[in-house]
Amino acid sequence: MHLLMFFRHAACLLTGLLALGSMTGCGQGQDPVERFLETHWQDPLPPQGTPPAGFSALEASLSPQACAQCHPGQFEGWKESLHSKTMGPGIAWQLKLMSQEQGNRCLRCHAPLAEQKALVALDHGWPNAPDRSIPGYVSRDLAHQGLACASCHVRQHERFGPPPRIEPVKDGPHGGFRISQAFADSRFCASCHQFPQDGPRIAGKLQEDTYQQWLASPFARPGAGQQTCQSCHMPDRQHLWRGIHDPDMTRKALDVKLSVVGQGGGDYEAVAEVRNSGAGHHFPTYMVAKVELLFVRRDRDGGEHALGRQLIGWQVDTPITREMADTRIPAGEKRVFRQAFSAPAGQDWEVELVLRVAPGEHYERIYRDSLRQADRLPEDAVGLLRLALANVEGARYELMRVRAEAGPARPPADRRAAIAN
User: Fold this and answer.
1) How many domains would you assign to the chain?
2) Are strands 158-161 and 178-179 parallel, antiparallel or unpaired?
3) Among 151, 158, 259, 266, which residue's beta carbon has the most beta carbons within 10 A?
């Protein structure tokens, strides 16, 4: 496939890329939260403008490091989160191939502030780049800091946040802040984690559909068991946003059972039952991540035999035009994976299920396809692309191992095994 044609197909997924519009239609009517979000997540966000006359340089700054002076805990969490890395090499190499219009679609979620977009335009020499000096409240590295604090909390130099848990400081910095319940509402996150109903689809399914998956799940039902995006991914208001990249978070999402059923004549079937008991959306939610199920027979004498490999995930071709399989597990539901195999008579053995997570599997395939055409890419883009591939490959990890024993001395029917982390 011609590189630019491939790129036009692939870019929309890689960077969450389309302008999503307001979330009207995703909520339950025009309530105060929805009205707030329609203004708060305008597309595009307007520039902050001139800071109030009484602001100090620290109060006016949009830099996360400035926010850290009073919010060190939130800053430390954000610094380790994926939100701080949304302008990493995985998007940086693509921006070198994009027009300003294409780039701004990506930046809508990856670096949404108008000031960040201006800095990117300057870096890439785009035609509408600002021709005046950078204002003092904009640090030169702001565009590289991804989804920064100000992306969610600052509009026209006014600060916004959730209802405070302690009495706010009187006469505090930047004139205090405006309170909105939207910061505890899943619709706040939907601005970047949900395509509109007329958005891009594959096999009839929206490419990004996390909010609607949650809305259809038991976690969205009002009551004691309700879990919002924030209560799950920002517990105790921590700015960590852990998901499938984090082994502990991923283990909380799954219950796994393994049994071995004898079929007679030395033939068996390993049956893996995987339940999405903890994620309030599909597991995984969209096409990027995959979970690999490796079935292995281990003999008592140390022999090891690979029985088969299956995947949990939404498998789509790299141009993002065709679905190959969809084995994601909706919230609260289970999926059964079966692996037939044979084993010798008179020998003790056990079956083990190994779960491995590739958080960026789809990116891996796209990056490798792009590197095969490296001679047609700008040299500086190739270096970033290689780094992006190394990053996603390095994010792979083993999640857990599950064992089910079987052998001639023990009838192998319906054996269950505990999870061994």
Assistant:
1) 2
2) parallel
3) 151
